[in-house]
TrEMBL record:
Descriptive protein name: Transcriptional regulator
Organism: Levilactobacillus parabrevis ATCC 53295
Superkingdom of source: Bacteria
Stretches assigned to the HTH gntR-type domain: 2-70
A GO MF term: transcription cis-regulatory region binding
Amino acid sequence: MENKYQRVKDSLKEAILSGKYPIDEKLPTETELMEQFKVSRYTIRRAVGDLETEHFIYRIQGGGMFVQDWHKDWTTENDSKMIGVITTHIADYIFPRIIYGLDEVISDSGYSMLLGNTRNNHDRERKHLINMLNSKVAGLIIEPTQSALPNPNMDLYQEIKDDQIPVLFINAAYPQLDFPYVNTADAKTEKKLVEYLLGMGHESILGIFQVDDIQGVNRMNGFVQAYQEHPDISYKSNLIMYQSGDDFERITSRVASYIDSTDRPTAIACYNDQLAIPVMSYVKSRGLRVPQDISIVGFDNYQMSQYMSPGLTTLNHVKDVMGEDAGRMMLQLLNKQPVQSITYEPDLIVRQSTAAPKHVD
């Protein structure tokens, strides 16, 4: 459990890093801090002493405590050559390959990585951003957290921007910020995937998309755009929206309502392979055959998707290439060179999980 001294220190440091207390602003007195945190004078002095040692606070005899210019020598003091990398799910099937490609590039230039995992939670994102600032990383590569929702950490991002710390977004971007990014043409390629199904004769397709991340919103938009070009059958489309924290059972209960209906969909388009694989298993557990009864498609080309039975039709995510490009772009940013954002267009990978519906000859 975090002790009182550490709680006071971390709280004051966060307030300084987030800009609540600007450079050279006078801090509350010891007595005011004691009242604020409900701790002893000793606890306050210990916390403030550490912050003074770390150059976050300076004192003026008889004048009080003030905020030190803690980022003044950012570039000259950074000898560790550390790049902060913040992901939403570091252990999922996407990021290990991205990190591998990234490390291949930056390690050759003498840089190493400090990793953080938000688990797609804004509070954890804030903690990792503060940790990166404390560690004085040379640059930041960030996968936005719940990128389709309002972000409460914009004060920290503004501080990072004001300090001119190089930042690169990956897989998504916050629209309020103009940092460069590497991402995927999610809407365009999901539309291509749905058009492939429509071209096979599928008219009633169920789309299942995660909507707290902008990738899922864009893929859902691609699904809708494909049907907009087929207005005569658009009424046969179906959508399930979910968020990253939802249990799979909640999703399958809604899938069940569709596959149990008399006019069940003949195909299911999933947000990604990580969802498509258990959906395929669930559909088969209900006595339906894939693809004879229902075709299923994913997105991202998870390595295991080709070994499923049947193999999963999907869209390729260029994980290693994305990591390598991100590494090269970060090195350019560190060298104060201009960079251009990159958007990839994944290729369609057709496997055995899709077939023409029964009613099509």
